[in-house]
Amino acid sequence: MKNVRLAMLAISVSLSFFGCATFKQVPRMKERNSSGVGLSVKLRGPAHFPTYKARSVYFAKVDDINIKKDAVYESNFSKDGRVYLLNASPGEYVAVAASYSMLLSPDLYITYFPKELVNLTRVRVDDGAFVYAGNYHVAMNVGICEEKADEIQIYYAEKFAPGQPKCGMVKMLTHELNTRSIVFIGSHAYSFDATKYHYRGALLKADHESSDKVEFMRKAQEDLSGGGWGEALGR
To answer: What pTM did the predictor assign?
Structure first.
């Protein structure tokens, strides 16, 4: 009976953690000329199934010469695979990685984009504008190794997890206990170690068609309606 109670408690805690992430509120426009970026990302598992919808995308603000940057900006809202960076400052952005987390688990699965895909996501963000950066289907592969991954994947993987092993199945499955999630149930706090898993991305499909953009923007109007983004989305 004690084990059953502990199991039920663990499920309750996990549900609480997952629920907090799921019902995150839309960030409100900070100013009337605030800007945003949106894109869709699906991630195909290493065994060619299943396919996961990204919950976060990580952006770098870049220039014409270099896409290796120290600062990485995590998206601040997502829904059904549509991911948004809202209240972005003006400039050029690229997407460098995407992640998802499993139901009932705080663990994070990060896929680093190849240079080809990073360059496809490049967009210019101006004051008061909302920019569509495309629709992508990305394969997750094990092993961020010099003989397999490109320089951009290796660079950003090291930014996310300095000094941690990321090459090969055995090393990749080594727990990297550098993130701790705290969940409150009533007046009690429960702490969980969150593990990060690292994958080498490969582009399967990219879509920048105007019809796809129209559909994305239509759904974005619904997704972001609670944050006052209607005017920016209409420009």
So the answer is: 0.82
